[in-house]
Amino acid sequence: MRLVVAFLLFVSFAAAQPVLQNRMTFSGGWSRQVGGYSLPKETATGLGLSYGYRIRPHVEVEAGVFAAFQPSPDIQGAHYFLNPDDRFVWVPFGVRFIAPLYLGRIEFSGGGGGLYEKYSVSNPDTGFGLQSRDGWGGYFVASTALALDRAKHFWLGATPRLFLANPGYARDRWFQLAGEFSFRF
Protein backbone atom coordinates (compact mmCIF):
# COMPACT_ATOMS: atom_id res chain seq x y z
CA MET A 1 0.00 0.00 0.00
CA ARG A 2 2.84 2.42 0.79
CA LEU A 3 4.28 1.77 -2.63
CA VAL A 4 0.95 2.62 -4.31
CA VAL A 5 0.59 5.86 -2.29
CA ALA A 6 4.19 6.84 -3.05
CA PHE A 7 3.63 6.16 -6.76
CA LEU A 8 0.41 8.24 -6.81
CA LEU A 9 2.16 11.15 -5.04
CA PHE A 10 5.08 10.98 -7.48
CA VAL A 11 2.76 10.98 -10.51
CA SER A 12 0.67 13.87 -9.17
CA PHE A 13 3.77 15.99 -8.39
CA ALA A 14 5.26 15.27 -11.82
CA ALA A 15 2.02 16.29 -13.53
CA ALA A 16 1.78 19.48 -11.44
CA GLN A 17 4.94 20.98 -12.95
CA PRO A 18 4.09 23.83 -15.32
CA VAL A 19 4.95 23.17 -18.96
CA LEU A 20 5.03 26.00 -21.47
CA GLN A 21 2.72 24.60 -24.13
CA ASN A 22 3.40 26.83 -27.16
CA ARG A 23 6.68 27.04 -29.11
CA MET A 24 7.52 29.46 -31.93
CA THR A 25 10.85 28.71 -33.62
CA PHE A 26 12.89 30.64 -36.21
CA SER A 27 15.43 28.56 -38.17
CA GLY A 28 18.33 29.41 -40.42
CA GLY A 29 20.94 27.17 -41.93
CA TRP A 30 22.15 25.10 -44.82
CA SER A 31 20.23 22.70 -47.10
CA ARG A 32 21.69 20.03 -49.38
CA GLN A 33 20.19 17.59 -51.83
CA VAL A 34 21.01 14.03 -50.71
CA GLY A 35 19.23 11.99 -53.36
CA GLY A 36 18.03 12.33 -56.90
CA TYR A 37 19.86 12.26 -60.17
CA SER A 38 21.32 15.73 -60.57
CA LEU A 39 25.08 16.19 -60.36
CA PRO A 40 26.56 18.15 -58.71
CA LYS A 41 24.29 17.98 -55.69
CA GLU A 42 22.41 21.20 -55.08
CA THR A 43 22.93 23.30 -51.93
CA ALA A 44 21.05 26.34 -50.68
CA THR A 45 20.44 28.68 -47.78
CA GLY A 46 17.51 27.47 -45.72
CA LEU A 47 15.15 29.51 -43.56
CA GLY A 48 12.11 28.44 -41.61
CA LEU A 49 9.42 29.11 -39.07
CA SER A 50 7.62 26.47 -37.02
CA TYR A 51 4.99 26.26 -34.32
CA GLY A 52 4.59 23.48 -31.78
CA TYR A 53 1.91 22.74 -29.20
CA ARG A 54 2.53 20.32 -26.34
CA ILE A 55 -0.39 17.98 -25.90
CA ARG A 56 1.50 16.11 -23.16
CA PRO A 57 4.66 17.07 -21.23
CA HIS A 58 6.81 15.00 -23.60
CA VAL A 59 4.70 15.02 -26.80
CA GLU A 60 4.30 17.97 -29.16
CA VAL A 61 2.41 18.41 -32.42
CA GLU A 62 4.12 20.78 -34.83
CA ALA A 63 3.75 22.46 -38.20
CA GLY A 64 6.03 24.82 -40.07
CA VAL A 65 7.24 26.38 -43.29
CA PHE A 66 10.83 25.97 -44.50
CA ALA A 67 12.44 27.24 -47.69
CA ALA A 68 15.65 26.72 -49.65
CA PHE A 69 16.57 29.66 -51.90
CA GLN A 70 18.45 29.36 -55.23
CA PRO A 71 19.42 25.66 -54.97
CA SER A 72 20.11 25.24 -58.71
CA PRO A 73 23.32 26.71 -60.13
CA ASP A 74 23.33 29.06 -63.10
CA ILE A 75 23.31 27.25 -66.43
CA GLN A 76 25.65 28.75 -69.00
CA GLY A 77 27.27 27.89 -72.27
CA ALA A 78 28.97 29.65 -75.16
CA HIS A 79 25.77 31.35 -76.34
CA TYR A 80 23.35 31.18 -73.43
CA PHE A 81 23.00 31.98 -69.74
CA LEU A 82 20.11 30.92 -67.53
CA ASN A 83 19.58 31.90 -63.91
CA PRO A 84 16.69 29.63 -62.80
CA ASP A 85 15.77 31.79 -59.75
CA ASP A 86 14.24 28.77 -58.04
CA ARG A 87 13.21 27.83 -54.52
CA PHE A 88 11.88 24.89 -52.54
CA VAL A 89 9.14 25.44 -49.96
CA TRP A 90 8.36 22.64 -47.51
CA VAL A 91 5.37 22.54 -45.17
CA PRO A 92 5.92 19.76 -42.59
CA PHE A 93 3.31 18.70 -40.04
CA GLY A 94 3.70 15.95 -37.48
CA VAL A 95 4.61 14.96 -33.96
CA ARG A 96 7.76 15.39 -31.88
CA PHE A 97 8.79 13.49 -28.74
CA ILE A 98 10.80 15.44 -26.15
CA ALA A 99 13.30 14.19 -23.55
CA PRO A 100 14.27 16.90 -21.01
CA LEU A 101 17.62 16.72 -19.19
CA TYR A 102 19.38 18.72 -16.46
CA LEU A 103 16.38 20.19 -14.64
CA GLY A 104 14.52 20.73 -17.90
CA ARG A 105 17.07 23.23 -19.24
CA ILE A 106 18.38 20.92 -21.98
CA GLU A 107 16.08 19.02 -24.32
CA PHE A 108 16.56 16.37 -26.95
CA SER A 109 13.70 15.69 -29.32
CA GLY A 110 12.88 13.67 -32.40
CA GLY A 111 9.91 13.06 -34.59
CA GLY A 112 8.42 13.13 -38.04
CA GLY A 113 5.26 13.33 -40.07
CA GLY A 114 3.79 14.41 -43.38
CA LEU A 115 5.15 16.98 -45.81
CA TYR A 116 3.92 19.15 -48.66
CA GLU A 117 6.60 20.38 -51.08
CA LYS A 118 6.42 23.16 -53.68
CA TYR A 119 9.31 23.75 -56.09
CA SER A 120 9.03 27.08 -57.95
CA VAL A 121 11.08 28.24 -60.91
CA SER A 122 10.78 31.90 -61.93
CA ASN A 123 12.60 31.32 -65.24
CA PRO A 124 11.37 27.90 -66.44
CA ASP A 125 13.16 26.28 -69.36
CA THR A 126 11.99 22.91 -70.64
CA GLY A 127 15.28 22.38 -72.48
CA PHE A 128 17.07 22.05 -69.15
CA GLY A 129 14.22 20.32 -67.30
CA LEU A 130 13.46 23.25 -65.01
CA GLN A 131 9.74 23.13 -64.30
CA SER A 132 7.72 24.03 -61.22
CA ARG A 133 6.21 21.06 -59.38
CA ASP A 134 4.59 20.10 -56.08
CA GLY A 135 3.92 16.90 -54.20
CA TRP A 136 3.58 15.09 -50.90
CA GLY A 137 5.98 13.13 -48.75
CA GLY A 138 7.34 12.94 -45.22
CA TYR A 139 10.03 14.37 -42.96
CA PHE A 140 12.17 13.38 -40.00
CA VAL A 141 13.59 15.76 -37.39
CA ALA A 142 15.97 15.55 -34.43
CA SER A 143 16.91 18.44 -32.20
CA THR A 144 18.85 19.55 -29.17
CA ALA A 145 18.06 22.81 -27.38
CA LEU A 146 19.32 24.77 -24.38
CA ALA A 147 17.25 27.20 -22.28
CA LEU A 148 18.79 30.68 -22.17
CA ASP A 149 16.83 31.98 -19.16
CA ARG A 150 15.56 30.61 -15.85
CA ALA A 151 11.91 30.86 -16.86
CA LYS A 152 12.66 28.71 -19.96
CA HIS A 153 11.04 31.11 -22.41
CA PHE A 154 14.04 31.54 -24.73
CA TRP A 155 15.88 28.55 -26.25
CA LEU A 156 18.83 28.10 -28.58
CA GLY A 157 19.27 24.87 -30.51
CA ALA A 158 20.52 22.90 -33.50
CA THR A 159 18.29 20.76 -35.70
CA PRO A 160 18.92 18.41 -38.61
CA ARG A 161 15.91 17.65 -40.83
CA LEU A 162 15.37 15.22 -43.68
CA PHE A 163 12.69 16.10 -46.25
CA LEU A 164 11.47 13.29 -48.51
CA ALA A 165 8.99 14.29 -51.24
CA ASN A 166 7.68 12.52 -54.33
CA PRO A 167 6.24 15.04 -56.77
CA GLY A 168 5.45 13.91 -60.29
CA TYR A 169 8.54 12.72 -62.21
CA ALA A 170 10.95 13.58 -59.37
CA ARG A 171 12.20 12.18 -56.08
CA ASP A 172 13.35 15.04 -53.90
CA ARG A 173 15.54 14.21 -50.91
CA TRP A 174 16.92 17.16 -48.93
CA PHE A 175 18.92 17.39 -45.70
CA GLN A 176 18.78 20.63 -43.73
CA LEU A 177 21.03 21.58 -40.82
CA ALA A 178 19.79 24.66 -38.98
CA GLY A 179 20.49 26.78 -35.93
CA GLU A 180 17.29 27.69 -34.14
CA PHE A 181 15.97 30.33 -31.76
CA SER A 182 12.73 29.46 -29.96
CA PHE A 183 10.29 31.38 -27.83
CA ARG A 184 7.96 29.40 -25.55
CA PHE A 185 4.82 30.68 -23.94
Describe the structure.
By secondary structure, this protein is mainly beta. The chain is built from 1 helix and 10 strands, in the order αββββββββββ. It has one helix spanning 2-15, and strands at 22-33, 43-56, 59-69, 75-76, 81-82, 86-101, 106-121, 133-147, 154-165, 172-184. Strands 1-2-3-6-7-8-9-10 form an 8-stranded antiparallel beta barrel. The chain has a two-stranded antiparallel ribbon with strand order 4-5. The radius of gyration is 21 Å and the shape is elongated. The chain starts with a helix and ends with a strand. The relative contact order is 0.20. The model has no long low-confidence stretch (mean pLDDT 86).
Order of helices and strands: HEEEEEEEEEE
Low-confidence stretches: none
Largest sheet: 8 strands, antiparallel, barrel
Query: What structural category characterises the helix and strand content?
Result: mainly beta
At the first level of CATH, the class is Mainly Beta
Total domain count:
1
Query: Which percent bin holds the helix content?
Result: under 10%
**Helix tally?**
1
| Percent of sequence in beta strands | over 45%
Cα-atom radius of gyration: 21 Å
Per CATH, what is the topology? Porin
CATH architecture: Beta Barrel
User: Ends: how far apart?
Assistant: 39 Å
